[in-house]
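Hi R.,

Here's the chain you asked about this morning:
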Amino acid sequence: MTTSVPESTDVAAPSPTYRGVTAWVALLLGLALVVGALAALFWSGVVDLPSYSIQNNGHAVISESDLAQVVAADVWYAITGVLVGAGLGLVAWRWFRSLGWPVALLAIAAAIVAGVVCWQLGELIGPRDFSARLAAAEPGDLVPVSLQLHSVSALAIWAFAAVTPVLLISSLGKDEEDPPRRQRTGVPAGEVVVDDRGVLTEDEET
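And here is the predicted structure, written out as tokens:
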């Protein structure tokens, strides 16, 4: 039989109330809306949209190199999603890590909200009504294409970027539920104990 000091009893932290969690979830979604609006300003400002040139005969032409730049909007949207999504994922982990696995769903939801806001608001801020602008253009004018997200699947990048830090921190970070060895055994460092075999041992701090 082993002689040891009784294990100290820690008072468990109270679980968050439903009302408190709801308030923090609403705050996270509000943050996602604000961040999504700021991301829309960034997206609409950083994209260099190609332009059609109006010829004297009224035809609109665009070079092949400029035509390839049409996908630049999707590329910058994806880059913005990686940055914003990762940030929202870190915030969600910091605020809701005590909830366990639902924190991943909250991070994904916040990223999708921000991504949709960036998508819709960005298209409103950027050039619109390409057909109307093209019809009203005069020879020699340059008419930029509309700011559009051509691949809706790019929205998934926002969700993936948000859940990635949550999964990494939860799997590689310190397990807060695993108490120190001395707390598990209840034996202070340096105390001489007798195990079940009758052997005197000294428990050292590891």
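One quick note: The mean pLDDT is 75.

Cheers,
M.
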